[in-house]
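haha ok so turns out i had the wrong file open the whole time. this is the CORRECT one, sorry everyone. sequence first:
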Amino acid sequence: MSLQIGSDAPNFTAETTEGTIDFHDWIGDSWAILFSHPKDFTPVCTTELGTMAKLKPEFDKRDVKVIGLSVDPVENHKSWSDDIQETQGVAPNYPMIGDTDLTVSKLYNMLPAAAGDSAEGRTAADNMTVRSVFVIGPDKKIKLILTYPMSTGRNFDEILRVVDSLQLTARHQVATPANWTRGGEVIIVPALKDEDAKAKFPDGWRAEKPYLRYVPDPSA
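then structure:
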């Protein structure tokens, strides 16, 4: 079944660099980010894993658990971690799934069923679609899906920005405009009619159109 925003995040059991996990149990009541890689010892992914490790304290503040995946054995991940430490200044400080049988990659629609059941002999190009980011809520629903080409490193500041938006809009009846960052104005959702909006936002709002009503960030 095709996954999309709002879909249940498929559960799985997998071996990771921090032991065996049941994915849903591992998430618990937190938010989670699953980000995937086509193969170990690839250049762009090396920079990404180090960047995520540096940003992990920011995700921790937001109660977001981070887990990586690569289509290679866990033992390889541990060796790769040494390279990441050497070249990026920090090693992964979150678990990395070893998806050697391609189960998780296929479960999350990153590889087709016809890809087989073994990572053995597969190149990074064979796994080029295993370059996705999934943000998953405490309700185990998928909130965001991003897929990147192998040649383009992911922008983890943008992923952090999206998490801020998702968490804010989950608590309040607002949406965030283009290029929004934490503390900026937000938009009252159209489903909240003026009558009800007056109770929720007693200080009023700035309306550019009847459907475009701005208020200050309610969490600021």
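The two ends are 40 Å apart (CA to CA).
again sry for the mixup
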